[in-house]
Amino acid sequence: MKLILTTAALALSAGMAFAQDVVRMGTEGAYPPWNFLNDAGEVDGFERELGDELCARAELTCEWVTNDWDSIIPNLVSGNYDTIIAGMSITDDRDEVIDFTQEYTPPDPSSYLALSADVDLDGGVVTAQTGTIQASFIAEQGWTLVEFATPEETIAAVINGEADAVLADKSFLVGAMEGNADLVMLEREEMIGGGVGMGLRESDTELRDTFDAAIQSMKDDGSLNELILKWDVASTFE
What we know:
Elements (H helix, E strand, L loop, with lengths): L1 H14 L6 E6 L2 E2 L3 E3 L5 E2 L1 H12 L3 E6 L5 H6 L5 E2 L7 H4 L3 E7 L4 E5 L10 E5 L3 H9 L2 E5 L2 H9 L5 E5 H8 L6 E7 L5 E5 L4 H16 L2 H9 L7
Parallel strand pairs: 1-5, 1-6, 9-10, 9-11
Antiparallel strand pairs: 2-3, 3-4, 6-13, 7-13, 8-11, 8-12
């Protein structure tokens, strides 16, 4: 316990160095309920509420920046923003390029949407967003993969007959089914990737530790589980 408290204290004190600077929070803004743009054109969703609370606890001044998913890691590395908070699963491949905080949600099951419950995944065409753990999984199965730059395009591909099914986070697909009565969710689910964490440049160890401490404080007081339940993005922490 002493070690944990010492680590948290060091992380929070390190964050004070950033207190007078603006920390730019990078997200996609196109993956509800995780992150999306509301009617006012502002970033909204689970990660907006989470990120604002983390910044408040760390006493950081933060602003939100949107970026297309397929270039979200390169633009973090090049300095266009300081964090990625965009439903990004922690994977070994990504961890070789950027650093991650501890997970702020456990892994979310990946599910399939199709126009028929008896779709043949092995012999059909399965779509996923470019650069996602789902796209990698489909390729590893040896299935025919069609990738699109945005989540909306993957759903449209199924509706338009360009693909037989789409694989994505279940929490996203549940929302995508609303207003699309023809879409059905398959019973099959995949558990791929790790939990979801904030991405940061490998050189920004103090900022990572600051957010780590803030995430841990939300876990400790139960507010993180409350936020997960509010937005229904994943299972809660035990």
